[in-house]
Design a protein that fits this description.
single chain, Outer membrane efflux proteins (OEP)
Length: 228
């Protein structure tokens, strides 16, 4: 999943109730989906390229041999001279064919002594590409774990923040009613307004951290988590 795709999952208009049913997929699924990354695909292409070069190197011994051949077909004639320097041409009506074939071998001494090393170097290049892909995937798993644990933490905290915000809203509405009925002063109403503002600030801050962790998790794992 690219960054552009993740940005399509807009969290800006999410309400507190929208987070109630949000569940994170298991880590095993996220690890498996991470293998669909374009980076992994790039490593696979490079590995195939190295494997193709290895096959070519193993077959390079065929270049040491050269085949030669020729073929002739037709009727023959003999040109001769008589004692009087007269040229005589004798023509044969017999059809004849001639062919020859052969093989030449040319092996540079450097190839004789270094062929095994060349094949081994190419084998190591294939292994190095695989190890590089595995290392990147391991590092990607660590990044996924970090984003996953952050998302879990903020998701748990968000439920508490939502409850606190709902309580603060209810208390402020009650305070407003009491203020209208003259049961509390303006100062007491402002205190309740401050509690409400603080609860909303805590909620919005936690929500921003959670959204960031969720979007990072989507991009890192190539997995759609936010689906609204």
């Amino acid at each position: 999943m690219s960054v552009a795709v993740a940005q399509q999952n807009d969290l800006s208009d999410f309400k507190p109730s929208d987070y109630s049913g949000l569940q994170l997929p298991p880590l095993s699924l996220l690890f498996e989906n991470a293998k669909k990354s374009s980076t992994v695909e790039f490593f696979n292409v490079r590995k195939e390229e190295q494997e193709s070069m290895l096959k070519t190197e193993k077959r390079r011994w065929m270049e040491y041999f050269r085949g030669t051949g020729s073929y002739q077909y037709g009727k023959t004639g003999v040109l001769s001279y008589s004692e009087n320097n007269l040229s005589l041409f004798q023509y044969s009506d017999i059809e004849q064919s001639y062919y020859n074939a052969g093989v030449t071998v040319s092996v540079p001494l450097s190839d004789i002594f270094d062929r095994k090393n060349k094949v081994r170097r190419q084998q190591l290049a294939v292994q190095a590409m695989q190890l590089e892909a595995d290392r990147w995937l391991d590092e990607q798993k660590l990044r996924i774990i970090e984003a996953y644990t952050s998302a879990e933490q903020y998701l748990s905290l968000l439920k508490i923040k939502i409850e606190a915000l709902a309580l603060a809203d209810a208390q402020y509405k009650l305070a407003e009613s009491d203020f209208v009925n003259g049961k509390i002063s303006a100062h007491e109403l402002n205190i309740q307004k401050g509690f409400q503002a603080s609860a909303r600030s805590d909620y919005e801050q936690n929500r921003a951290f959670l959204n960031k962790a969720l979007l990072q998790l989507e991009v890192l794992s190539e997995t759609e988590i936010i689906n609204k």
